[in-house]
Each structure stands twice: as C-alpha cells, then as structure tokens.
Amino acid sequence: MILFELDENCGKPKSRQISDLLADRMKTGLLKPGDRLPSTRKLADLLRVHRSTVALAYQTLWSLGFVDLQRGSAPVVRSRAPLPEASERERESALDWDRVSSPATGDLYRHAPLRTVQRSPSPPRGWISFEYLRMDPRLFPMEHFRTCLGRAFREEGTSLLGYGDPRGHEGLREAIAARMGTHGISVTADEILITNGAQHALDLVLRMMAEPGKTVAVESPTYGDILPLLRHYGLNIAEIPLKEDGMDLDTLENICRKGPLHLVYTMPNFQNPTGITTDQPHRERLLDICSRFGVPLLEDAFEEEMKYSGRVVLPVKSMDTGHRVIYCGTFSKVLFPGARVGWLAAHPECIRRLAVLRRYGELSPPVLLQAALARFCSEGHFERHISRMHRVYRKRMQTALAALKRSISPEWAAWTRPDGGYLIWLSMAPSPPADWEDILASEKVSAAPGYTFYSSEPTGVHFRLSISSLDEEEIEEGIRRLGRAFGKVYERKG
Amino acid sequence: MILFELDENCGKPKSRQISDLLADRMKTGLLKPGDRLPSTRKLADLLRVHRSTVALAYQTLWSLGFVDLQRGSAPVVRSRAPLPEASERERESALDWDRVSSPATGDLYRHAPLRTVQRSPSPPRGWISFEYLRMDPRLFPMEHFRTCLGRAFREEGTSLLGYGDPRGHEGLREAIAARMGTHGISVTADEILITNGAQHALDLVLRMMAEPGKTVAVESPTYGDILPLLRHYGLNIAEIPLKEDGMDLDTLENICRKGPLHLVYTMPNFQNPTGITTDQPHRERLLDICSRFGVPLLEDAFEEEMKYSGRVVLPVKSMDTGHRVIYCGTFSKVLFPGARVGWLAAHPECIRRLAVLRRYGELSPPVLLQAALARFCSEGHFERHISRMHRVYRKRMQTALAALKRSISPEWAAWTRPDGGYLIWLSMAPSPPADWEDILASEKVSAAPGYTFYSSEPTGVHFRLSISSLDEEEIEEGIRRLGRAFGKVYERKG
C-alpha cells in the first residue's frame, strides 16, 4: 500500500507532490513494473484531495513514462531503463572531444582560462577590484525597467513571447536610430541589427567576413576578448601601436600599402583598455585611409554615451558617406548588461548579410526584453539615466585621477586621463623583476594585467583600472592600496 | 528669442521636450553655431518650469554635442557636422559587401529567401496556414509567466540584469536536469548548456565540430533550417532515407563503413517534417552503430515533452553510457519561443568546449528570462502546462487525422499518424504536372512544401502540415480546403 502524507506548506502543488513521491518509489524499486496503482478515487480519498489532483499526477507519471494508463482502469507501473549509476556517469566519455572538435575550437578552448566559462567571480571579501569593466549594479534603474516590462506585458500581449524579427524589435531599432541621430549619425531602422550585446556584434561581423588568411588591423593594446575570436576565425592580426592620440595612422597606411587589409577595428572613445579618445582630425584621416584602400571599418562605440567631460567628438560613422563603417553600440556599458542588447549599424546590404547569419544562428532575439527597452528609451528614462550616469562617473573619474596623483609617484607610472567611460591605463616604469599579481594581492587590490590586451608580447608592464563598479570611497581606498603595492616594487629599487 | 510652449499631456518629460525643441532648431539652422542660449533661470521663468528641468535639458544637449557648457555662463551652440542628406544615405555603398563577405556567408545569403530575415508573415486574412511550426499564442501561459517574472524581480534584484554564467542560469540548468531525469536521462547541471533556442544549439554543435570536408548524416527529409547551416560550415551532407520506422540504419551502417562520418543528426520523436517516432529497438541499434564507429550522435528532442498518445519511448540519451550523445531540447515547442531558451546536454568535456564558443560568441544569455523560467518550472507551472498541451493537442491531432480521412482520398495521398507533436507528412500520389502553390492558394490554404526538407532533389511531392497554431475548427476547415485543392489535381487526372 502507498503511505505518505502531503505537505500543505511546502509550496509544491499537491499533484506534483504525488507524482514525485510515486516516481521516487518506482526509481528505488519500492514500486515495481506490473504493480497496479490505486484508482484515482481511492487515492484521492486516502489523501483527502480532489480526484482531479490525483488524475493530474497520474497523467504526469504517464507522460514521463512511469506508468501505462488505460481509460477506466488503474495505472500500471511500466518497466523503464534503469538510470545509469553515478559512477557510470562520471566516467570518461567514449569519445575524445578534442578529436570531435575542430582545431579552431580546440585552440579557443585551450587558450581560454577556465574562469571565462563561468560567471566572473566577485572579488574576495575585503578586496577592492579594478579588474572588470561592468556597470555598478547599485546604479541599475531597476524600478523604471520593471515598470516598462510590466507595461509592455499588459499592452503588447502574446507577441512578446513569440518569435521576433531576426533583425530585432522594430520599435527598439527606431529608438536606437533616433539616439544615433543625436550623435550626428543618420540611419534608419533598416540599417540596424540588434545583437545579443557587443561581443555578439563583433562575432557576427567576423563570421561574415572571415576566411583563413585574411587580415584584421587592431589597436595595440585592444579589447582583450576580440583577440581569441580573431584567432578562432583563422584571421591574421595586424597590431597597430596606439599612441596618445589614437592608433598610429602612418603604420596603418603602410600596412594597407603592403598588402590587402580586410578590416580595421577601432574604439574611438575611451578606448578599451586605455581610455584614450581620438580627435576629429584623427577620425577623418582614419576614414580617409579606409576609403582609399577600400577597407571596411568596424567602429566599436561601446561607450559612446559616456562622454562626460571635454569636447564632443563625432563618431566616424557620422562622416561615413561611402558606407564603409560598421558601427557597433551597446546598452551594456551605460544601462545594464542583462538585457543582452547591442547593435550594429551599417549599409543595408551589410545588415542583410548579418541578419541571415543571425537567422540561421539562433532565429531571433527575445522580443520581451527588447520591447521593454524600447519603452525605456521612448519614455525618456534612458536619457535621464545617461544624465545621471554622467554626474556619477564624472565625479568617480575625478576622484580616481586625484587619488592617483596623491598615491602614485610619477616615477613609478604614467596614466591616461579619460574624458569619459570607466577605464584608466597605467604604464609602469621599468622596475626590478616583480610578481605583480602577488604584490597587488598583498594589499587586497586587483587590476586587469596589461598583457591580456595584446596579441603579441607587450613591452613593459601595464594595468587597466576599471572604476565602473566602485564608488568614490572604494576608488580612493583602492588607489591607496595600489600606491602601497607599487611602493613595495619601486622603493625596494631605490 | 526662443518661443515655444510645453505640452503638459504628451507624456514626454518636460526636459526632453525642451532639449528636442532646441535640437530641432539647431538642426534646421534657426539656432546657429555661436548663438547663446538663455540662462537656465531665464528659460525656466519663461517656460514656468523648475530651473533643474532646464539644467537637465542643457546637460542633454551638451552630451549630444549640440552646445558647449561652461559653469556659470549660458550654453553656446556648437558647430556640428551636418547630417548627411537622405539622398546621400540611400546611395550605393562604396564597398561591395559580397566581396567583404566570405564565400560561406555569401552562399548562405544568396540561398536564404529574403522573408527568412524578417518575421515570418502572418497568413493573409481568411487563409488557413499549416505552414509554420509555431505554438498557438492563444495557449501561452501569459499570466503565470508574468507572475514568475515579477517574483524573480522582487526577490533576486540586480543580479537579474547583470552578466550571467555563459553556460546559463544554474537554477534553470538544475530544473532542466530534473526534468530530463523524468525522461530517464541522468545528468547534472554541469552537463547542461543553456542556448538561445534549439537553432542556436545546433549552430554551436556544428561550430564546435565543423571543418570543411567533414560529413554529417541527416534523415531525409530533415529539419529544413539545419541544411543551410551545414553547407555554411562546409560540411558534406549524407542523406539517410527515412522509412516508416525511422532512419534507414542499414544505409547508415554502410556509410559508416565506407568512410569517416563525423556526426549523426536525428529527431527520434515526431520527426520534423514527418511526425515519425522511432521505437526502442531502432534507438538501441542507432546508438550501437554510433558506438561501433565512434560517431557522436546529435539527438534533437525538440518535442520530447509532446508525447500525448502511444507508448512512451526513452530518449537515446537515456541509454548513452558511453557519453556519445549530444542531446538538444527546447522550451519553444511546448511553452513559447519568446524566452529563446533551449539547451544541450552532453559530457562535461563537450559542454566545456561549447561553453567557450558561447562565451566568445556573446558572453552570456539574459539572466532575467532564465530566472523566470526556472521559477515557472520549480513552481509546477511547467508540468501543468504540459498536461494542458497534451489534452489540447491530442484532440487537435485526432481532429486532423479524422478530417484527413474524410476529405482526402487515399488514392491522392498517404500521411503519417504521429503519436505526439504537431506535424503530419503528406506524400502525394503521382499526378499530372501541377502548380501546387497556385492550387492551394486558390483555396486559401497553405502548407510547407516538402522539397524544403531535402538537401537533394526529392522524388515525389510532399507537404508538411503543422497543426501547432490552429484550433479544431480551423484544422477541419483547412483540411476541407486541402481536399478541394487536391481534387482539382487528381480529378482532372481521372
């Protein structure tokens, strides 16, 4: 006989409690194939529940293959293949997955630190981390976004949970086009493809153009997470030295002269990792070089909105009458990353090719989040949020620059003074050999090591400081710790 | 002087109205570079708003590059590059995007019907469409999902809008592992990778293993949207004829003997497009062949949950002690597609490689939707929804099969009798040449033409009927129309 009690307060529906308990007994062999379960009426009486509750539980057991049901008679336990033992599960695969994988995947896998496949870890308690470029969750506009989500749900109904347009939600593309208009870029919704964040945008562009042996020019240092992708696609990387005013354009021009170049990748604003912003003449000459040599330009404007001091400089895309520029934007670095919404803006001929790759790669992005974001923009929340972020981060950046001046001797390091964004680049003076990671750890502070932003071996030691998720007090304390750590290296020297 | 009025009722924030109106005047030249705007106090008095409202508007104009601001003095209009004219925008790109694209992208683009990059069109008014495999939006559990979303928002806070784990939300992976357990598959959350739907899952697997010249075996006919992907990755396609009881295993074995095969792709339940389900012995022999020849098996179980009649058959993955099977599941074909959540389950060595590809391809999927879905599962909504779907679609399928028997002569066509899912495959008898699309259109009914599910030219005419988004009345009327349309072909013959 079946003996068990239902728990009124566990929050699990009663029919589910019944089916789970019965399934457990079948798995452990207390109920065996051929055993007959009580009729719905009998079990309902026994457990003091409605017959329909038991019927639902039996239906579930049937649909899971635990019992055979026949109209009018009690369910009979079926024979199911035994579950493999845990020991069996943990043993080696009969396949060598390195041989199943392509060399391109194997390379990416071997060079990816394991932590990259997990959520980036929080710093240990008591540490201050300048390591990651992530918005401060304390600044997420939770309530406004939730309101927009709720309103979309009420007003737009089931279309929010259906398939969407592979190019992305039309209302959001229009809001983005309008937003780009305020930066001097004239595009329509048809020239925009919504992507799952900026990384996805880069992946789609590389996937579109990649053939082994093609060459892509990048700033050196550059965004660390594009380098493994370039290698994965079999592309050659031409590193163009980054000077104080941006990519060295003489070097770029020489490279264009020597052989075919297939893409130039640049971050004109608050470059990652250096924080450098190029000026208008630099942008004009860069576009001119690309025009003369017929090279498409990928403008990564991941922090376009985060210009909070200095003169405004127009995006390269705003001058792009020849439609050579593929512009990449994202909400992740000014709003929050969790909507996974970035975009590409380019000539419709380019966008259509990218849209086909997205279509066969994953059909379409989630409508619900895009619809909520479109409302967030059209109702003015986005602009207000940007203004707030400018106020907050202008002060944080000023605090950081002042603290650096106080805590770090100019004989130890030089650093950039960004007009926006979150990133400061420290270039360390020559020093005796030092285990930098250990030395920073001794002061419970961390920063992104510079070599991760270079394809080849860099000269000198660098750190990228991200102030994106630290408040002013944390920034000041963190930089004091950096000062003490660096002192251990350089004062030992002196 | 600036003359305009604010609109109390337009819903647009006042500061935004002010910045928009001023920006418009700058764009049209009414305000020119060098012009000085009124002080915040003066404009605030004039418009009867608070000074901070004007200050916010000026801040916005500054951040958009329209004005220069200096503390204490009025803003001055800056010179901005003129927006390119519409005529300039529409002209040709200076680049030939076919030459920028790789041949693999070009092929995909040229062979993709243009409509595939847009949302699939709704059928014209008055039509009945059996064409698309999409859940009926009338059955979406809107309220329960919205409740789960709201509860997640209240209880989980900012982590919902941050970056997530590239492998997917842990709670959801656990819920999926538990769900798979009820189908006899024993996996942990570490053996699961959440994907952006099943198409993304297929793309990741192919991306992992693809090298030009490798060979993938598929059922013939098979899922139409995997064929362009296989070609895009340069893979050879080995079409294995599908018989009434599934893929012809003798042919598969012969192909394995002749040369290296690198993947077998199969849909054991309610196969797309035929609706055929293989039996236990067929599954065992399929796995045995893969084991003997060392070939990984991609089991696409896109409708695993939709078994609503007949005996339960266990997934191939449940017998996979050698970890050769990569299992693909999705919520899109039983719940709704809008969460864009599918998954892959495989040996951890395989999952880690796939996770690295996802990580560099787009970082991580949206936490919010996954967290809501995890709640939807753990609170029992998913199981109850499945039971409901079984009741609804069992009746719809019975209705469809009865209607086919009434309306379509066995001399015109033969069709499958699926035990679950949404798909029926019609194989038409030989007929005089006919423009099938036209003939169906004359009765305002549509079905998916069979040739889209074959890599090579099929023999004979087939149609895939999807009953996924039609109710019983629509199914009956639609099949009557099919009968009349087919009559025009076959009675002309007789």
UniProtKB/TrEMBL annotation, chains A, B:
Ranges for domain HTH gntR-type: 12-80
GO molecular function, one term: DNA-binding transcription factor activity
Keyword match Transcription regulation: yes
Pfam families in the cross-refs: Aminotran_1_2, GntR
InterPro entries from the UniProt entry: Aminotransferase_I/II_large (IPR004839), HTH_trans_reg/aminotransferase (IPR051446), PyrdxlP-dep_Trfase (IPR015424), PyrdxlP-dep_Trfase_major (IPR015421), Tscrpt_reg_HTH_GntR (IPR000524), WH-like_DNA-bd_sf (IPR036388), WH_DNA-bd_sf (IPR036390)
Keyword presence, RNA-binding: no
Full protein name: GntR family transcriptional regulator
